[in-house]
């Protein structure tokens, strides 16, 4: 019943209030986790029949002032997103209880933080089930502000405050664009209900394209597509690990959900819409992965990797829209299935990776790749879990990332487009996706290899130890999900069956899976052989000798001589220098017997963000100069004020007309 | 069909050794020496299997399992390849995507093992390998995608064989694919002008330096895996060049066998006559292959009437 789903909102808010009110941190965490658990159960109870194919749940409230009728409608699309958003937030709350313990032991009150996690969960229920534009905006704004407050947990650090503020401004720019789109729709339909929007959008009007672009921009800003991703790296680097995980894995998927919701309302898309989504996704994936390969901060690296993965999901959606516009049912279902499954897979492995990065930070107080190394010796379980997440994010068989990418490939390489030149464009996109996958493998090899393997590059870091149970249990859960969906992707696709049924085409998930079943068997056989290889290694390990690494005759090898993160990606970054510029500060000794040590510092800032700040700075300079040139005489000011007043009056009078 | 499958298995077991030996023999003949026996790799493998592995104390279990993962993935890619021109051991839709990703898994395993040793040499090899292979993936996909579009096939066995119904551009598609896939073979099996498998100077190594620390059976697994990759690449090229590919007859199988040997001779000749490219020039070399594969893809749009 939809009422039980909506009841979870006051339950979560009650949990939030209690978490703030209770004095002990442990009690606050327990209350928050408990209320989230009950809310998850309520939601899952309502959502499971929806995912099995029953009809959507509907509810209408009458609230004459100020909102009129508020309609709620939970269909299979919202059900799919709700099914994993709430449980993953619960898992994140459990992780937070362990991760924030050092802060709690120093006397910090964590109640508000847990309350905000509850509030974020409540906002999901609102966003995914509402049919009213104002309630949607309310849920959107709650999620954004709650996420901001979660990010600035360490608010005493000015950089973290700035990162949070940057995120807040960017998410509100997205809100403005969304409000613009909703206002346009309201002016055309005189209603705030999504059903009315849908009736308007499904007709071929001239504003349909404009609305598509406006909504696309708003949701691209939320989900961190390129070039709207500039807030992402700072926010992820500043936030605590579980907040980064939840933002990246769960909160920002709301943008993709909303995009799908509105385009489903739109009905059959035009072909240019499909191509634009495909191209935009490919651009995001390309730039996201280029930035991922050069970062030295592990959490920034994982943040850019989110941009890459939503790009891949968008490429799947682009294939879906194209298939829909060409009336090719299997291609359409293929694209949407691949995109949606990739969203679920991404939530699973990205959260796992961020949790592991948080464990690293907790252990050695640094996530700078240039200083890490050799963590596998002290933290073997974290290493193994990060490796599973890393292999999954590179899309390698037999884990889950491989299968969602295969579904997208099967759409791109199917040759089902109506003309050869379109097929050529799809194959070129497939080659682009292959490049993105290969560079993602490069990035993850670099991140995992430099941080966990080898020896410690900075011996001043504390010797790490494994995280407590509240931190590795969430990781194990996510890793189990990664492996399960990798070997039995049918489980993930069964969640999607009814969601894909919302697309009015006569094809189902089985049509997508049928040609891929032999590959699934091949993946399973590969997994068996890999497990056998592992067993062979364990058995052979008894008979071996230990020595030092071969140093090519050099006897005084130190850990500082190992390859670093920047050296690993240096030649790659140089080839793509115009896309990923490097910032290098150096002071090189010039004399034969230098008196002072030299130093070199290099990092790769975000070029889009740099350019944006440059432009904003130039704009500010321009405004300041123009303002200084206005003469300081009262008559001019009076005249300018009068003209402005007349203009505003004319606009207000004119807006009363019906165009 | 059963005979073909059995011959496939036999080829998979024997031909990697023979081809590697043939490449080395061609190189020796070009430098005026007699060269090692053709099945020298078999003697090397047997010798290595008898030894005890020596592991560095810096390494973790990743280092121990990586060579076997590499070997498993090499076999995994070989079972979907039509080694004798027709009828691979296993064939399923989009197995060429599987092929590329399984090679990627093997590569990631080797790179992680290289980084595990904590040695700057091996890290260098891993960095170079990562760069070259990431630039190479789109080449492979463009060539395979072009062949798939022009022949309408979705499995590796069927898209490599010539189709009567393929349009006008199919000859150009195959030629450009052969050029692109030859470069892929050179890069993936670490041959000149991309990499020198015979040297151990840090300036010139890519693959050799990644496996410096492996010893005993682990090294045998890696060498066998590399030989299998060389054979698989040569078999793909041979199937592309074979006019009777897909027939499944003894003639087509023996022509494929001969073409494999010819490809090995070509690889050895290239290796003897062309010096190693400067590392900065290798991406340019791969870009040439990318351009060739792109031409192959565009040629699929060229039909008798022209236009899309």
- Please give the count of helices of chain A: 27
Main interface by residue count: A-B, 82 and 82 residues
Total helix count of chain B? 11
Sheet bearing the most strands of chain B, described?
Answer: none
**How would you spell out the order of helices and strands of chain B?**
HHEHHHHHHHHH
Q: Into which percentage range does the β-strand content of chain B fall?
A: under 5%
Helix content of chain B: 55-70%
Oligomerization state:
heterodimer
Q: Which descriptor suits the 3D outline of chain A?
A: globular
Poorly predicted regions of chain A are none
Secondary structure layout:
The complex is a heterodimer of chains A (659) and B (308).
Chain A: H1 2-21, H2 25-51, E1 57-63, E2 68-74, H3 76-99, H4 101-105, H5 111-129, H6 133-151, H7 158-189, H8 194-201, H9 207-223, H10 231-238, H11 241-251, H12 253-266, H13 271-292, H14 298-325, H15 329-364, H16 375-378, H17 380-393, H18 400-412, H19 420-452, H20 469-487, H21 489-501, H22 509-513, H23 517-540, E3 544-547, H24 565-568, H25 570-575, E4 583-587, E5 599-603, H26 607-629, H27 634-655
Antiparallel strand pairs in A: 1-2, 4-5
Helix pairs in contact in A: 1-2, 1-5, 2-3, 2-5, 3-5, 3-11, 3-15, 3-20, 3-21, 5-6, 6-7, 6-11, 7-9, 7-10, 8-12, 9-12, 10-14, 11-15, 13-14, 13-19, 14-15, 14-18, 14-19, 15-17, 15-18, 15-20, 15-21, 17-19, 17-20, 18-20, 20-21
Chain B: H1 2-30, H2 40-49, E1 53-56, H3 61-78, H4 95-116, H5 120-151, H6 156-159, H7 170-188, H8 207-210, H9 217-241, H10 250-273, H11 282-299
Helix pairs in contact in B: 1-9, 1-10, 2-9, 3-4, 3-9, 4-5, 5-7, 5-11, 7-9, 7-11, 9-10
